[in-house]
Amino acid sequence: xxxLAEKVKEARIVAVLSVNDKNDAVDLANALVxxxxxxxxxxxxxxxxFECASAIAEKAQKVMxxxxxxxxxxxxxxxxxxxxxxxxxxxxxxxxxDAAKEVGLPFAPGIMTPxxxxxxxxxxxxxxxxxPAGTTGGMKHLESMAAPYKHLGVxxxxxxxLKLSNMKEYLDSPLVAAIGGSWIAxxxxxxxxxxxxxxxxxxxxxxxx
Length: 209
Ligand code: 3PG
Hints:
Layout: H1 4-11, E1 13-17, H2 22-34, E2 39-43, H3 49-59, E3 64-68, H4 73-81, E4 86-88, H5 94-103, E5 107-108, E6 110-111, H6 114-122, E7 127-130, H7 138-146, E8 155-158, H8 167-171, E9 179-181, H9 187-191, H10 195-206
Parallel strand pairs: 1-2, 1-9, 2-3, 3-4, 4-5, 6-7, 7-8
Helix pairs in contact: 2-3, 2-10, 4-5
The structure holds 3-phosphoglyceric acid.
């Protein structure tokens, strides 16, 4: 069976979305899939985020369902119950990593320092979310930071400040399993329910991989 890093590497793009209405969530996921997106990170930043996750898992076209902004052990367990395929967090909280492991939820913790990489490795995670990528030095930072750990098979999902114009410079690195960002499904287009525009953004991003 493929591990999380292998599956994420096949997807290459993780579309980040924050949505609060479960019907919108299904339409949004379908628009992304129609545009060629294979993996999403649904953030826990809206009151109904878990309902949206269930709706996507049950009603949308097949997509790799990631839950993001997982900040507590309970949220990790609930993500699993809602049908998540994986979860990520902006930071590296070992209690959350261990809770995800406990329920069998593949997890990619957030890192931006060597110490956080070492904590992640110690708790069994070799795929990590490099966040916030854009403001902490981008690929230059990731390459020098990851150099001492390359032999351990680490890989990363850079997030934060990525867009159509710079996604390729990240994807070209063998350290990068997939890139992600919210520019494909931004808040204004979700609010306007402009699924056609989101699908177009997804197609443009997919054409770069
Ligand atoms: C995330 O939650 O993964 C990031 O906030 C996405 O960052 P972006 O909004 O800069 O794409």
